[in-house]
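Hey, can you fold this one?
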Amino acid sequence: SIGTVWYVKNSKFKKKFAMKEISKVKLIQENSYEEIIHEQELCSKLNHPFLVTMNFSFQDTDYLYMVNDLMAGGDLRYWYSQRKQFTENECKFIITCIILGLEYLHSNKIIHRDLKPENILFDKKGYVHIADFGIAKELSNEPEEKIIDASGSPGYMSPETIFKKKHSYASDFFSLGVICYEMMMKRRPYLGKNRQEIKEKMASEFVQIKSDEVIKGWSPEFIDFVNKLLDKNEENRLGYKGINELKCHPWLKLNNWKNIYLMKE
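Sure. Predicted structure:
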């Protein structure tokens, strides 16, 4: 809404990038200047195979420019529209890549806070990368620190976030659960035309995948994984005690995490 993404190539090294061209005027008009500067500063610190890396940034009189890795495979929302149904193995691979990216972020005391299909990008080989750190939050070294801020995309926000309660890393795991749910069910667990309607649904319902809703070919371990991520009580949610709870869950424990990290699978 405030700029354009260009496909560009460095003529000297012949390397391809995606370049965000962001209007300074629109940034000021939409009160988004601080958010973009925050994203630029944060991205300059991040370096991980499953995050979209910002290689460099610059500006001129009218625009800010952020030059990122090129993700030529589209985003997960695009693939929702292209695929009639994902397989469980495809879902497992995508979720594994996301978890590795989140593990790096959380180990650096960063909560993404806007995990959704539009921010899950594929490279040309099919590996998944987390993008868009505009509303990500860095926690201090204070033990048990949490934040209160209801920014995000309502359909993927955790209950504690949308209701403006203190939240921490486990809010990302709820968003991950929504993505898992949507990959099988082809809809989000809490639907509404706007934030208020979604809040009302969250307040009155507790959505879990029921046995009679399971698509043929999807395992009980997957259902258990998703339902535990979608727990509305943050303290009962899978991952509340750390991301290893996800990695050691029966649905994922047989993964060759090292090979996937090295992009050998």
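Residues 88-107 form the longest helix (20 residues). Let me know if you want another pass with a different chain boundary.
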